[in-house]
């Protein structure tokens, strides 16, 4: 059964694993054992994990998991921003390497409530600030499809872990592409929700002035929808919230969307060159949407690239500076 479990954990999506657990065909402990075995087999080559919480995960299973929709599924947190009580959130920075979390983030509470088994944290560039994943604290993370290439960033460890079969899904965050870039690099599905859809509290209310949102990298759209169903919705203390959803996202997947008007953008506003293969893929997607009855128009958002870039980095830099100052004050007072 353990060998069978290893094969399942490596290949199956999160919702499928939860269904197997619910039917009694595999146990949460067996799935965790397979995820750990896969980690030990592949992580020395790709360096996706910054922390291993094997014992905490085993203890959670022994204590009894909630009967949630993803009960027993192994899951990983990104090692930045979110907190899990009794573990370090290092932000992949030496400044935070020893700072122990005293409580769960609301997001982590919701992950646990739906039955996920959190067994580690994944690498990210320091403070999640780059589109590739290398840090002085944890080293270089590599793409499992080609070890000479990056898995992207900043959720690069999450992307590498899911693509390599360490787990079926992993939490990520996205301010300027940090879920979507590694999803593209690693052949996964990555969605950045609208701000306020998934809470960041209670320790922080928003990230980067609302630019940063949290969600996950998955192997399927269905898994992404299930995770969003489990975590979305306002929490007390949120500075704002996204409008309530009309129905669960897993139902939304099969609901007719009507005839959509879709913008096709083939070049960035910066004017940087785009590889012909990428342009061809975008055009293929546009043709598919047209075949499905939607209206596709080539378009370009307004704005000046230099002005947008300058404003974005002022916003990001001021938020990071504030976080460092807050942490330095804590260290001085200790």
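-> sequence recovered:
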């Amino acid at each position: 059964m353990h060998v069978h479990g290893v094969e399942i954990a490596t290949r199956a999506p999160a919702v499928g694993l939860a269904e197997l657990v619910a039917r009694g065909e595999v146990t949460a402990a067996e799935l965790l054992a397979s995820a750990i075995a896969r980690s030990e087999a592949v992580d020395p080559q790709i360096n996706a994990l910054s922390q291993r919480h094997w014992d905490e995960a085993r203890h959670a299973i022994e204590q009894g998991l909630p009967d949630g929709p993803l009960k027993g599924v192994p899951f990983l947190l990104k090692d930045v921003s979110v907190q899990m009580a009794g573990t370090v959130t290092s932000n992949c920075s030496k400044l935070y390497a020893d700072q122990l979390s005293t409580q769960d983030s609301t997001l982590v509470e919701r992950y646990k409530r739906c039955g996920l088994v959190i067994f580690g944290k994944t690498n990210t560039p320091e403070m999640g600030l780059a589109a590739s994943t290398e840090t002085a604290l944890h080293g270089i993370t590599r793409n499992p499809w080609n070890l000479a290439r990056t898995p992207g960033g900043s959720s690069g460890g999450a992307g590498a872990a899911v693509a390599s079969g360490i787990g079926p899904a992993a939490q990520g965050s996205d301010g300027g592409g940090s879920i979507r870039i590694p999803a593209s690099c690693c052949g996964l599905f990555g969605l950045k929700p609208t701000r306020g859809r998934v809470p960041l509290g209670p320790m922080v209310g928003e990230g980067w002035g609302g630019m940063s949102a949290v969600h996950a990298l998955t192997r399927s759209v269905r898994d992404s929808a299930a995770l969003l169903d489990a975590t979305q919705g306002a929490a007390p203390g949120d500075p704002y919230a996204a409008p309530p959803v009309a129905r669960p996202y897993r139902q939304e997947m099969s609901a007719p969307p009507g005839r959509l008007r879709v913008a096709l953008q083939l070049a960035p506003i910066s004017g940087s060159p785009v590889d012909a293969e990428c342009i061809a893929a975008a055009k293929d997607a546009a043709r598919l949407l047209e075949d499905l009855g939607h209206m596709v128009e080539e378009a370009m958002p307004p704005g000046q690239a230099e002005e947008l870039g300058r404003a974005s980095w002022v916003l990001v830099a001021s938020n990071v500076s504030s976080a460092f100052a807050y942490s330095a004050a804590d260290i001085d007072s200790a």
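DSSP finds eleven helices and ten strands in the chain.
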